[in-house]
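tokens incoming
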């Protein structure tokens, strides 16, 4: 995806490393201090709502609480790997598309369940 910008492989690695470090720092900050969701403050939850609570629970090995907070917390490392691999985590395009579609469907189903339940 970054190749469309005509940047070198080294620049791609540096960019992805910088983004990964920034997201990790934001995640660590969120784990300690919390980051309020602007959508939730307006009364509408988003697909990521509960993610901080889910990671806190998962890190303390309380996976039941983690799934109740946000059932798709487990997909975040996979989505990161997918992005790092230039959206070609698997060699076959159909497998890549199916993998990504399954995660998107998972987020939609989890979102609907959290709203209904
Ligand atoms: Zn949210």
């Amino acid at each position: 995806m970054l190749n469309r910008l005509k940047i070198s492989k080294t620049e791609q690695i540096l960019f992805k490393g910088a983004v990964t470090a920034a997201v990790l720092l934001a995640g660590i900050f969120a784990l300690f201090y919390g980051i309020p969701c602007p959508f939730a403050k307006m009364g509408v939850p988003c697909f990521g709502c509960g993610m901080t609570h889910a990671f806190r629970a998962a890190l303390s090995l309380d996976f039941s609480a983690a799934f109740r907070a946000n059932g798709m917390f487990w997909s975040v490392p996979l989505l990161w790997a997918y992005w790092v691999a230039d959206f070609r985590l698997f060699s076959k395009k159909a497998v890549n598309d199916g993998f990504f579609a399954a995660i998107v469907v998972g987020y939609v189903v989890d979102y609907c369940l959290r709203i209904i339940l």
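note: Residues 10 and 16 are 10 Å apart (CA to CA).
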